[in-house]
What does this fold into?
Amino acid sequence: MSPLISTLKWLDRNVERAFILVAYSSMAAIIIFAVGQRYLFNTQIPWSGSIPIYLFLWVTWIGCSYNVRRRSHLCFNEFRVRMSYRAQFACMWLDALLWLSFGVLVVYFTLEQTMLAYNNFSIVQGTDNMMQWWFYCATPVAWILLMFRALQNLAADIGRYRRQEPFIVAIQSVGAETV
It folds into this structure.
């Protein structure tokens, strides 16, 4: 296997988790440092209250994409496991169509808001040159990734349906991912 393919497979499996880890760790480090600085030296970094909030946007929306990939986001497995095989397949299609429909709306309207912040040169509170639109990109980027994950799940479901294999309808543990 070529290094490019193995890198792409690793990214496919881990991009959300890696990004969440970096963003969440950055949030925690900024907050811990700011609290320590406030209590030890009686000073505060002006942006220590705003940057973690903006990083939280990335954590939440990328986390949403990750949970769609794992099929643990907004699902009603108690009902699905009792449905017929064809009804389960229809629900898989419905999931994908709903995620894609919502995704198109979210991306369209959040890109509009991100462009508004970009065009107005909106600066993050407490900074001199950190642009707000960098953080506002979290929503459209994550929803594009979410739509990609929904399509990946649908493709896997179609393959399972053709092979008459059982669908993945139960939440999986992180270490046993097969999606």
Remarks:
- The chain has one domain: 3-176.
- Residues 76 and 169 are 9 Å apart (CA to CA).
